[in-house]
Amino acid sequence: MLPNFSPREATAAWKAGWETKVQAPFARFRQTFEGSDFALPGAAPILLKSRAKRVLLEPGLDPSLGRIGPLEVRLATTKSEIRRAQRLRFRVFYEEMSAVPTGMAALKRRDVDAYDPICDHLLVIDHAATEAKPFRKARPKVVGTYRLLRQDRAEAHFGFYSSGEYDLAPLLERHPGKRFLELGRSCVLKPYRTKRTVELLWHGIWTYVLHHRIDAMLGCASLEGTDPDRLALPLSFLHHHARAPEAWRARALPERYVAMDRLAKEAVDPKAALMALPPLVKGYLRVGATFGDGAVVDRQFGTTDVLVVLPVSAISARYIGHFGAGADRHAA
User: Fold this and answer.
1) Is the pTM of this model over 0.70?
2) Pairwise CA distance, residues 101 & 88, whole Å
3) Shortest CA distance to 196 belongs to which of 72, 74, 285, 82?
4) Label partner for 140 (CA 20 to 30 A): which of 31, 124, 170, 269?
5) Which of 2, 177, 145 is nearest to 72 (CA)?
6) Measured between alpha carbons, how far is 170 from 167 in angstroms, rounded to an integer?
7) pLDDT for 217-256, tens place per residue?
8) Rounded CA gap, 124 and 115, in Å?
């Protein structure tokens, strides 16, 4: 007579059997032959490779950049960590917001593009919250991410991501010898969209900027929605009150250009406009960023994009003082 297991008991029994009958013997086998040549009689030798995770980060910078309580900001060092950032991006961009996934993104449940392998990925991890998968050890939860692309890496491959929306060549030509850093693909899980998380992300970026001696940051920031007329107030505010000076200005590509001055300057209520701006854009404004000429509608992501330009020399002194000249305020 078969035992009458509940579904939970049956799952536990199956898992126990898998661990004792399959995983444990295979682990002993690997321990015996790891890194050595193993061959069956009459067969070519097989080299068993170590499963150690490949470290992707360049040497010289500690991956852990800062911490506030259980929240840590760090750089991804393995492909697995990058995949976790991509899954977070999918959750925010495609499930919470209105981005339309490609077939592969929908299948993998990850937001992936060709720029991911050439970028560094900044992560915010909550050590007080864990996520677990069957047969895997529980890991601290990834709750925020930013993608960082240095100019030397961009030029060695296919340029900045933002160049698909803005003509960056004149801007870069006006500043020869300057080191630019592109910020992009930023997102934070809804429960973590707090001042503390944003501050930790900026601390990580500032530490990275100092280490790589970055002179200026740029990147596309998004306003939700694809109808510029519905976004007339925030777009007009950015055009009239936060437009980049000529030396630091880049213009949207002609075929994608959307005018931002949809309202006259005197018709813009600055207080109402600030309330209509996304928290990320308001954060850029606070540290001293200005914005490019023209917006761009991104129909795949369901957004209207603006170009953020932030020379390091323009960052408000109070923010540099807040994070510390050596980026040691939230040092891990």
Assistant:
1) yes
2) 14
3) 72
4) 31
5) 145
6) 7
7) 999 999 999 999 999 999 999 999 999 999 999 999 999 9
8) 20
